């Protein structure tokens, strides 16, 4: 039988981003990567940043940044994101806001329209990033 190596797995939590609204972690660091759960436009106090996709996308990216920094990483180390949109008509607006967070070369990305997001959010963004070494 082949021996399987174990990788350290650590839950990441910060008060600089909203608490999880279900049974999941804000992020998990495993090996040399951190996997950040989808972030919506919720402020750290749990209130929506605004009703528009601009405010929500900007806040979602602020949340990603705060969680990544807590994990010992940064937006510069993001290798893959997934953007979930409640309405694909918001794609260009979210793209413009997203581009400001990744000016030095954006990560790989998927963007999809979904039927509905938690709390009726307009956008949710999840990320995978390398940890600082």
TrEMBL record:
A Pfam short name: Ribonuc_L-PSP
Molecular function terms from GO: deaminase activity
GO cellular component: cytosol
Family per record: Belongs to the RutC family.
The name this protein goes by in its record: Enamine/imine deaminase
